[in-house]
Amino acid sequence: MPNAALVTFDGKVKGRLLILGCPDLSFLTADELRACIAHEMAHLTGPDGLYTNFVRRAMSGLSGALEHMSAGLSDDGDEEGPSLAAWLFLYPPLLVLGWYLSALCALDASIQRARESRADMIAASVAGRRACASALRTVHREGNLFDIVAVPQILDALEARSLPANYYATFRKFVQVHPEALDEVEQASRTGYTVFDTHPAVTTRLAALPVWKDEGPQDDRPARDLLRDPDQIERLLTAAYSRFIRESGRDPDEERRRQRRTKRREKRRRATPRR
């Protein structure tokens, strides 16, 4: 993140932040971690930060405007629904804005894919093609699998009051017991790509990596062992992550829509003259 603020266990940090996912450290080697860091650092060079700060904010504003206009045309649970004037006033610009935002998202995705390819090239030049390729496979398989299974498993554990002190250790055991889950993630990644995907397909990224003649000696130490106290870090993250999941039980988008409906009904109620 080129310009952000983040609260950590040791205090608050801000500025250019590079964030590495803890689940990936359980499966990466030191060389692969070096490739990941080089890839992420590449995003902090060149025009990437400028693009993120300005263009993505503009897209977020357009998306918010589209959401508000769509909410104005929804019935919001009211019996009367939107008026004819609201339809005539909002529907044409809603169509135009929706088409424009869709086209802009497709263009943004193509730029994002180019940025990812550029970062892969820089990572391969720093850590070597072999380490970069294996890191891509690992982050894609194990990292995506964590995103799929972590929240349901933690929610089930919270309901059963059996949350482990270190969920990351539980996830490592899950991968060992169910290696077929990784194969399913890899198989699913080979299909379904669209113009709105911000990352190229893994097979495309692997094929585009340059070949280097001399990559030097390999460092196959587990990346997790590079941490001073990995078990303590994972315990702290387990507590923080589970608290976040517990407090995010409601869909935030649905909650915002519910609040807007309540405000509009209250406004109409106050505007209606009493008899």
**Neighbour order of strands in the largest sheet:** 1-2
Question: How many separate domains make up the residues?
Answer: 1
What is the approximate shape? globular
Question: What is the rounded Rg?
Answer: 23 Å
User: Roughly what fraction of the amino acids lie in strands?
Assistant: under 5%
Q: How many extended strands? A: 2
- Largest sheet composition: 2 strands, antiparallel
Helix count equals 10
Write up what this structure looks like.
With 275 residues, the chain is mostly helical. It has one domain. It is built from ten helices and two strands. The protein has helices spanning 22-25, 30-42, 48-73, 84-127, 129-159, 167-177, 179-188, 202-208, 230-247, 252-271, and strands at 4-8, 11-15. Strand 1 (4-8) and strand 2 (11-15) form a beta hairpin. Helix 3 packs antiparallel against helix 4 (84-127) and helix 5 (129-159) packs across helix 7. The radius of gyration is 23 Å and the shape is globular. The mean pLDDT is 79.
List keywords for this structure.
275 residues, mainly alpha, two-stranded antiparallel sheet
Topology of this protein?
Elements: E1 4-8, E2 11-15, H1 22-25, H2 30-42, H3 48-73, H4 84-127, H5 129-159, H6 167-177, H7 179-188, H8 202-208, H9 230-247, H10 252-271
Antiparallel strand pairs: 1-2
Helix pairs in contact: 2-4, 2-5, 3-4, 4-5, 5-7
